[in-house]
């Protein structure tokens, strides 16, 4: 099942032999630029260890493509939870974008949410929004100051922020 597409990549949902769900990013190995992007992403992702960053589980290089295997994040992306089922505004291919169909139940704790009470829209209580903002800030702080070589993400946006089933941002 396709989860998302980029300019030079496609992300699929898959399962490992023992049943663990994964997100598999496939890059075109015929393109030299993709090979550079793959190597860069592999080097960076393999060095990261933070609860707010999706962990890289493995990689594969073969004749069919270049593959990066990440832990599957089951809660959908922040854009969906804030704005509901809206059409994608595009993807520039720089970062992993995983789109899922997860829905959250509307809660009475969403006073002030512009989506509260609108049928077909997901919404997040303000306490969860704060938790997500804090987690994203901690992830950025880790990328900038918590590792030997600073990593600048360059594309932080709601559609690139994934949420776990417990609404922890990744």
From TrEMBL:
Keywords, in A-Z order: ATP-binding, Kinase, Nucleotide-binding, Serine/threonine-protein kinase, Transferase
Residue span, Protein kinase domain: 1-170
PROSITE patterns documented for this protein: PROTEIN_KINASE_ATP, PROTEIN_KINASE_DOM, PROTEIN_KINASE_ST
GO molecular function terms noted in the UniProt entry: ATP binding; protein serine/threonine kinase activity; protein tyrosine kinase activity
Binding site for ATP: 25
Record-stated family: Belongs to the protein kinase superfamily.
This protein's name: Protein kinase domain-containing protein
Record lineage: Eukaryota, Viridiplantae, Streptophyta, Embryophyta, Tracheophyta
């Amino acid at each position: 099942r396709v989860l998302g597409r980029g300019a030079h990549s496609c992300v699929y949902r898959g399962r490992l032999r023992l049943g663990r769900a994964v997100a598999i990013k496939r890059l075109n190995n015929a393109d030299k630029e993709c090979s550079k992007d793959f190597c860069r992403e592999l080097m960076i992702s393999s060095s990261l260890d933070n609860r707010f960053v999706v962990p890289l589980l493995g990689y594969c290089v073969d004749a069919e493509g270049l593959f990066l295997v990440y832990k599957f994040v089951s809660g959908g992306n922040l854009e969906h939870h804030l704005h509901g089922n809206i059409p994608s505004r595009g993807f520039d291919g720089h970062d992993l974008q995983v789109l899922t169909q997860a829905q959250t139940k509307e809660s009475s704790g969403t006073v002030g949410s512009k989506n509260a009470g609108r049928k077909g829209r997901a919404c997040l209580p303000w306490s969860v929004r704060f938790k997500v903002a804090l987690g994203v800030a901690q992830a950025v702080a880790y990328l900038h100051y918590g590792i030997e070589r600073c990593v600048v993400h360059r594309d932080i946006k709601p559609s690139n922020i994934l949420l776990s089933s417990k609404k922890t941002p990744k």
